[in-house]
Write a structure and sequence with these properties.
Layout lengths: L1 E3 L3 H16 L4 H5 L3 E4 L2 E2 L18 H5 L13 H8 L3 E4 L9 H8 L6 E4 L11 H7 L5 E4 L6 E3 L2 E3 L2 E3 L18 E2 L23 H13 L2
Length: 225
């Protein structure tokens, strides 16, 4: 599983999923190793000096990453594209607020190695979603299972109507004891019955943000540093 946006929201989701794996019988250390988390400096690696304590359990070892084929890496670290290329994940979750971060190339690379990829661009509002359901469905030829953090209209593809699930998290994981896995809800828009017009879902655009404020918000969602 790849978490793009390793702040408290993204790591909170990882914590919840880790705990579910442990409850299912997976050893805790093995469960933690199922996750690859990225922040503003790329993939979390254990020799990064600025990782916070709640992020460190999900850092990969430098020895592991040194064995990868890196194509798109920069001074900002191992990129999302390189993580997907080397890891071949089945689940991709976005909590970065970086609109469009899940590019066509990244999604096609993921879908080439996974029959039914699970892709969750959870950032909101819609302008900050890592990808739109329409693009994800097109790029995976309708194979992706999708949930978003903002409401999106159904998508028609190859004579199939895809109703988009909306998932919202309240963050926190182990750091917010009021949150329990049973409270994480995913609601799917039901298929309209014959003769009943579907209720439109309208996403309202956010008020204009100052560029510096927007960049700071993205930094916070990626790292919370």
């Amino acid at each position: 599983m790849v978490i793009f946006g390793g702040g408290t929201a993204g790591i909170g989701i990882a914590d919840l999923l880790r705990d579910e794996l442990v409850r299912a019988g997976v050893p805790r250390e093995q469960a933690v190793r199922q996750f690859y988390a990225l922040g503003s400096k790329g993939l979390f690696v254990d020799d990064m000096p600025l990782l916070r304590e709640f992020q460190r359990p999900y850092a990969r070892t430098r020895a592991e990453v040194d064995g990868w084929t890196i194509v798109d890496g920069t001074a900002r670290g191992v990129s999302l594209a390189d993580v997907v290329r080397n890891v071949r994940p089945t689940i991709l979750i976005g909590t970065s607020t970086m609109g469009g971060a899940f590019t066509k190339a990244i999604i096609k690379e993921m879908a080439a190695h996974c029959e039914q990829p699970i892709i969750m661009p959870l950032s909101n509002p819609t302008s900050r979603a890592e990808a739109t359901p329409a693009d994800l469905i097109e790029w995976t030829d309708g194979r992706a299972l999708i949930a978003t953090g903002s409401p999106f209209e159904p998508v028609d593809h190859r004579e199939v109507r895809h109703f988009i699930a909306q998932a919202n998290n309240r963050g926190g994981g182990d750091r917010d004891k009021s949150l329990r896995p049973r409270e994480s809800q995913v609601s799917t828009v039901p298929k309209p019955q014959p003769g009943i017009a579907p209720r439109p879902m309208i996403a309202q655009a956010p008020p204009p943000a100052h560029p510096d404020q927007d960049a700071a918000h993205q930094q916070e969602c990626l790292d919370n540093t």
